[in-house]
Design goal:
Structural class: alpha/beta
Oligomer: single chain
Radius of gyration: 21 Å
Strand order of the largest sheet: 2-8-7-6-5-3-4
Order of helices and strands: EHHEHEHEHEHEHEEHHHEEHEHHEH
Largest sheet: 7 strands, mixed
CATH architecture of the largest domain: 3-Layer(aba) Sandwich
Number of domains: 2
CATH class of the largest domain: Alpha Beta
Amino acid sequence: MTRCYLDHNACAPLADEVVTALVEALSAPAANPSSVHREGHEMRLRVEAARHEVATLLGVGCDDVVFTSGGTEANAGALWGLWAAGGRPPNRRLLVGATEHPSVRAAVDALRAFGASIEEIPVSGDGLVSLEALESALGRRGPAIVVVQVANSETGVLQPLGEIDRLCRDHGAWLHCDGVQAAGKVTLRPRELGATTLAVAGHKLGAPAGVGALIVTAGVRLAPLIPGSQEGHRRGGSENLLGIVGFGVAARVARGTQGQWAALGIARDAMERRLLTALPGALVLGQTAPRLPNTTCLALAAPLRGGVVAAALDMAGFAVSAGPACTAGAEGASPAALAMGFSEAVARRTLRVSLGLATDPETIDRFTVALEDVARRVTGVRE
């Protein structure tokens, strides 16, 4: 049985160029990039070359790129760094979009335990942050940190960051954006978005898991989440050399393939039309909002459940998800669906399909046939 991988939002396969670079890096003499000898200097050159590639992909300066262990640390580092900037807990509120990723929610909960004031900004039924609610919250009291993702990992919904940036500027607020899902799939320029900080992760781009970056606007000083001398005293600890090398190559590959994602959206839309016809009562979450071109979040009709269908599809050779990978394992309700106003029953019936550039029409056709078959078997309906 040939496996079909349709869970690229959880982790993209390693790019061939990345594998080649990792093998070459593994054969290089071992050295710490912070060492002063020749071997250490050579490793430092590799780190800085990768930093340049990531910076070029995102249209920022090399000094704006802080390497981390992944998107989770980048999000946590940004929120802690902005909130605790200045050396003491300030009177800064965090205004957080209702559909943020679990890594952001966890960081926000940790800051709440330190006394941070947290306010959730609701979203519409399409998953878009309410600009009216955000403007009202910004105007009430005190300085704020606005936390809004670029793209949702479950639905692919893209937030109206131009308008959000305008509101933040009008009220003197900082803006942190989780760009983990969007990087490489859409043009992502933190400076154009108005983001004070932005998080990205290598494994969404075809790099190894365990490496990411926090993009910090020039001149903004953060309290380090992990103190130390590395990364310009902004993130301590020896750099993950292999991960960073792979991240740099993946960023370079992503620049060359970025224009191909829009065409994938055409295939995704055709797949959705077929599935909605074949599965009465199903709906696509966020369908009328701007979305990533590779993502479908399908709410199935009762009595189907996302986790059950995902397991059945796995047995049939198709890797899909019933929600964000960071919450997988428990067959719970989709956090995004709940925030968008859907009932818990509907939120338990979501199935996420995320395509990659290598996903061909034949694979999509095989998947739609398999999902239709699984739905018939699970519901006991026969042709």
